[in-house]
Amino acid sequence: MKVEEFLEKYAAGVRHFSGIDLSESNLSGAKLDDINLSQANLNVVNLSGASLISANLMFAKLNVARLSGVHLTNANLKGASLNVTNLVRADLSHAELSKASLVRSELIRANLSRATLIAANLKNADLREATLRQANLRQANLSEVNLKGSLLTGANLEQANLSKTDLSRTDLSGANLRDTELKQSNLSRANLSGANLAGANLRWANLTGANLRWADLTGAKLSGADLTGANLSNANLSNCTLVHANLHQARLIKTEWVGADLSGASLTGAKLYGTSRFGLKADGITCEWLDLSPMGDSSIIKYFTSQDSREFFNETPPNIRIIVDRPLDHEANYAMAAAYFQISQQYRLLKQPPSTEIGRRRTVLTFRIDSDEGLLPTACGTLLPFEDAPNIRKNLRTAVEMLKSEDTCNDGSIPFFRIQKFSQLLDEALNRIDEIRQIDKILELPSRMAFFQAPTQIILTNSSAQELIIHDHPNFGKKLSNRSEDEINTYNELQEIESIPFSVSEVIGFIKGFHY
Q1: Residue 335: is its pLDDT beyond 70?
Q2: Rounded CA gap, 439 and 433, in Å?
Q3: CA–CA dist 481, 326 (Å, integer)
Q4: What's the mean pLDDT when you consider all of the chain?
């Protein structure tokens, strides 16, 4: 069919031209809205500036076509072939392009906002400064594509292939890049704030100066990646692989990265504040100095030797373990949750509830602590619901007196100002606990339950993996179930005088293992 005849039929109201052959035709500027050109042969056609709004171009062939400035809003191009096609400044907003082929196409400054490109093939395409806001590119092939300066805010790129793709200065804020292939991609100065990159492969990617604030990189693979000067503040890097990654002068303020593998990584000059150093794998890291200032302004610099840096990044999470010689039942679990909630309202050091491990005979409550210095003061609050609390408080007061003793102060193994600080923190904590004990409603329910009256053992673990037992009930681990209640009470009375389970040297050795 000739172009003139085709245009006359369209003008007369005909819209169905499925399978038509218009290859090499000149239709520039034509108005063809709502037309059906499915499976049409439109190879090497000139549709520059044409209007095909809501057109049906399913499985149409548009290879090497000229579609610059074309209007394809809401058009259906599912399965269409647009290889080596000129789509510069084309409007494809809300268009359907699932499984379409756009290999080596030119889409410079094209508008693909809210377009659907599921499993589309855009290999080697040029999308510089294109707009793809909230576009759906799930499982699309975008390998070796040029997306420099493009807008992909809120776009869905889950499981897409972006290997060796240029995403420099691209806005991917809030985008979904879960399980996406980004190996050797260029993301320098890209905006990935709030993006979901969980499980993404970013091996050997260039992320220099990238904005990754609040991004989710859980389980992401970043081995060999260059993150020089990247902003990872408040990002989640839990269980992330950063083997031989370059984090030189990266911003790691309030970053979550427990379980991350930093083996062989470079962290010299990184800004680290409010970020846990516990639960990391950091063998062979390089770190000459760190910026530990709250604002990352270099006001607090810490220098390291190679040994110092290994110790700094290879710490054990400080924790408090309360081992109860009785399994936890539903009623006691309810009472414990209520008690710790009420205690936390009065005692700010008790920030999180414990993790609970219930065995056939025992229950282990584990409280994770942010720093070594918080171990002893926090322990004061964790013990409150238990009948053993008075003995534990007595042991903690003994620890305070040990620290204040003349021999300890003259020993010199712990700086005097540290001893003063620990003593002051413990004194304040114990005094506050005594005040909380006067609030009857907090301990009313636990006081009536057998679980909280069972023998306990309290163990503190510092960041050097050293343990200090601050309480060990004489009946702990001893089976008394076959005795009468009177016999048990008599036995308990005989065991009232409990020996202190630690010595001065053990307390000093435990505190010497603290990291600051």
Answers
A1: yes
A2: 10
A3: 11
A4: 90
Tally Cβ neighbours within 10 Å of residue 348: 9
- Yes or no: say if 368 and 427 are a contact pair by the CB < 8 Å rule: no
Question: What whole-number distance in Å separates Cα of residue 116 and Cα of residue 77?
Answer: 10
CA gap 319, 461 in Å, rounded = 5
Backbone φ, ψ for residue 96 (5° rounding): -100, 115
The per-residue pLDDT for range 207-240, each reduced to its tens digit, is 999 999 999 999 999 999 999 999 999 999 999 9
The answer to whether the CB of 413 falls within 8 A of the CB of 375 is no
pLDDT of residue 500: 67
Which two structure tokens, joined as six digits, stand for 208? 């220099």
How far apart are alpha carbons 277 and 255 in whole angstroms?
10
Residue whose tokens read 């010595």: 503
Question: What pLDDT, in 10s, does the model give residues 115-146?
Answer: 999 999 999 999 999 999 999 999 999 999 99
| pLDDT tens sequence across 247-286 | 999 999 999 998 899 999 999 999 999 888 877 888 889 9
Crossing angle between the packed helical segments 389-404 and 504-512, to the nearest 10 degrees: 80
- CA atoms of 483 and 54, how far apart (whole Å): 85
**Which among 462, 484, 488, 457 has a CA at the least distance from the CA of 473?**
457
Instruction: Identify the pLDDT of residue 494.
Output: 44
Q: Which amino acid is at 198?
A: A
Question: What is the C-alpha separation between 430 and 371, in angstroms, rounded?
Answer: 19
Instruction: Classify residue 75 by its DSSP letter.
Output: -
Q: Is the dihedral of CA 492, 496, 499, 501 positive or negative?
A: positive
Question: How big is the CA angle at 319 (ends 391 and 253), to the nearest 5 degrees?
Answer: 140
H or E element, residue 253? strand 251-253
Cα–Cα distance between 69 and 26 in angstroms, integer?
15
Phi first, then psi: give them for residue 112, nearest 5 degrees.
-120, 30
The mean per-residue pLDDT over the stretch 304-320 comes to: 78
